[in-house]
Amino acid sequence: MKVLHTITGLQIGGAETVLYRLLSVIAQNETDTHRVVCLGPSGPIAEKISQTGIRVYHLHGTGRLSAPKLALQLRQIATKFSPDLCVGWMYDGNLAAWWAQRHSKSRAIWNIRHSISDLSRERKSARIVIRLNALLSRSADLIIYNSQFAIQQHARLGFNNSGAIAIPNGVDTNKFFPDAAARKRWRETLGIGKHEFVIGHVARIHPMKGHAILLQAIHKARKTIPNMKVVLVGRDANKNNHLLRQAIVENDVGDSIIFLGEQSEVGPLNSMFDVAVSPSEWGEGFSNTIAEAMSCALPVIATDVGDSTVLIGNAGLIIPPSNSTDLAEALCEVYNKPLAARSVMGMNARERIVARFELKRMATTFQDVMTRIGGRLDRSNH
User: Fold this and answer.
1) Of 156, 198, 207, 290, which sits most exposed with the smallest number of CB within 10 A?
2) pTM of the model
């Protein structure tokens, strides 16, 4: 069975990471039957996929105005490769899968790894693409979401979710694990003292990711946690980001912040944290970064968005979104726990990931679904 994956871009992000992890498992047995089409910006994930032996087509789209050119290129790829199954990733990738499906007479699976609590919060261009996805959703043989929460939200937006399923993101627990050597190395590199309390936030800079709420919470928690450091990891998490710098100044927390920007390997980074936070205000379906932190045996604090409660269960703290006071109190609660209690909290988190959200489990489910849908095609009519 030949599979053509179409995705918006291959920078570091949630859906991009899930695709890479899936293909890294598939590539252990087959590389010639899968192809990836990157519509827009490339990045570290593209290189990782290429290293598995799976070919990546780069179309270098620069926005909606490049759509006619992309459509022509994609039609040529689909016609030549003649896939049995087109698999879309993210909203633009789903539209590309629809287009490739039309020109290859194949089956199609869409992936939506995002939740939408309020469509008005999305950019105008994104709202148009989401509405178009809803309009064309009946053409997909199956839509896969990463949370039940996202299924419900998209149904309210008019998506045809007949037979839709949720497959949570998977974590490679052999790459994300508690690493004492990495903890020591990273803390020494960044000049972080042995007894300083390190809060980690791994997320690109975007209003939905809750950086403003986190900085407010840090200001409120400083009296209780005077020895804190906050490590910000992710695209645009750097000193040159004007809005981020402004929020840091407004909350008077500059001496607590460490910028690391975008990192291609975050597994070892997690080990230097004492707690990982995800203060997202909306948009999360199933948080990769929290799942990865849990796999590294870290205590975690996350807002109640998407399927956070399903992911974390009783292995971490869940707080309401957009509430800096609750976040500050949760940080202080973890800080005030004895080290042994923090360790138990972290190990419970890792055990939950190993038992429920391990990568091989996710990859096996994906492969079974792709085989079931792609295997329906009658090649005699192809």
Assistant:
1) 156
2) 0.88
